[in-house]
Amino acid sequence: MNKRDELTEAATDYALAHGLIGLSLRPLAAELGTSDRMLIYHFGSKDELVAAVLEASNDRSKAVIHAMQPSASLRAAVLDLWATYTEGQVQRCQRMYVEAAALGLFGREPYATSIRASNAVWMAAMATHLERSGVAAADAPRLAGLIDATFNGVLLDRPLDDEAESRQIVEDLATALGRSQRGSE
Length: 185
What we know:
This protein is an all-alpha fold. The chain is built from nine helices and no strands. About 80% of the residues lie in helices and about 0% in strands.
């Protein structure tokens, strides 16, 4: 691992703990035991550093999804993905994704570009899990999009909802998709 890669991983850990909004190079550099100038030297700009952090975060989430065991059914896959999505590393990565997506909505770079790339990688990982869980390859990308959109909506509303309500929304989605899959067979 080269110095840039080491800094990317450490900066990703920092951003996952402190968030992206208001990220400042000096406190980040101090935490990493370097200077803001050295960060610019290794990344070229703050935007390039943020893009690297977002990519590393996404890669971490993707690795967790790829490591999941296949689920017994589409319904089980939705519930398994939600459990993974809302725990530990993936939950922190998803929260950072939401921050970046919000900034990207305003056209801020590197967020807009990074989020587009992140979405493609994330959706492919989810679709792969669905396929491994018995979903037809032709249906997996579309269903991954539906599941991801629901999860993100619940994540955005979650501070306003209680855990039971969030879980019920996901249960309802899982049940509906499970029924639709059985109906199409």
